[in-house]
């Protein structure tokens, strides 16, 4: 990330904010880290891999999310349905299913008041992108994600020594490979007695995840056996097609999510085979298996916990991350640091996603230690042990609208105004209400689905400013 430059004068910018110099002065008194605009814009960022306003905390201390590890229990995945809404008889779920089309339309009409229905080309695109969604490369090969595809020769097969690098060298190697395969960013969490609690007790098929002092990974009829030396949880992000994401929740816009889910297993197999080729093993979990993605995304600094609850918001990709993968490995890796980019604080005053969730699945309340009650969700599980937001999965119709309205989507790696938004909210929340209202009033993020067909489309649908 280069240095932050802008061409708007301080006076013009403050006029745009509706603030006087005195207003800005008050902000600086309350926030000693932020003295004036010149200081903000002149802050060094050259040596940092991330923008200057993304602060790093020590591993194990995600300062933007309070965690009480004594309350965290290993979840039993066999008792959790990822999409309980689909089969639920809970009255809210039934209502949402019966009224899906009209609720979806009411949101689309925010940016396109005369929009009435999906066109045939919209539906054709949706059908095409659904064709390979969650395609499982392991099944036709008779393999499992736990043991791996096992197609790539190992160092022993090549009569060569395995790769031996320092943890820092190893993460650089993986980052390089993962970018080539199509992942946006890669981060690492160290598995200790606390973070181990995030691994499911049992998988959806009823098999138990067990850690033992054994030499090799093994899968039996009842267990996934993990050697204790597997301490490094890799996470990587998939960026959705950016212009289509801004056209969610239309069926056309949802093609962005479909495409990401199609690429996800493809990248996973290659990551796993790359690690095998180095002489190590990656236990893969790409679609909800082994552990939830959000805690590892926060702990490793991929992003911050936000009002969405179920997906991290990243400083670079906003809410356009889909299906963040996990892979547990014995390749020694340096854990990456949790971040504070002001995102969670921005969510406190923003709540735009919750306002545009026509299905009532997102909370308008402040973060809470309270998990959701079964009477409200119809499901016997809601995560405990953190002060944050939780998605009501029985109400969530997976319409994807919440992604389309998040102000952090418009940032990319270059835009002045959003870098400034993110920069100021990482230091002071004083402008958050203003920026959230700007998103709602001008809906410069969410767009009319019909306009997508008029644009020259980017390769893989991704605006280069996010690459
Ligand atoms: S939480 Fe998001 S995906 Fe779920 S119903 Fe609400 S807007 Fe749609
Ligand atoms: S829309 Fe606003 S409240 Fe929702 S995740 Fe984005 S920043 Fe947070």
UniProtKB/TrEMBL annotation:
Keywords: 4Fe-4S, Cell membrane, Iron, Iron-sulfur, Membrane, Metal-binding, Signal. The keyword Endoplasmic reticulum does not apply. Pfam families: Dehalogenase, Fer4_7. PROSITE patterns: 4FE4S_FER_1, 4FE4S_FER_2, TAT. Its cofactor is corrinoid. Gene3D superfamilies: 3.30.70.20. It is found in: Cell membrane. InterPro entries: 4Fe4S_Fe-S-bd, 4Fe4S_Fe_S_CS, RDH, RDH_dom, TAT_signal, TAT_signal_bac_arc. Residues 335-367, 387-416 form the 4Fe-4S ferredoxin-type domain. NCBIfam families: RDH, TAT_signal_seq. This is Reductive dehalogenase. The lineage of its organism: Bacteria, Bacillati, Chloroflexota, Dehalococcoidia, Dehalococcoidales.
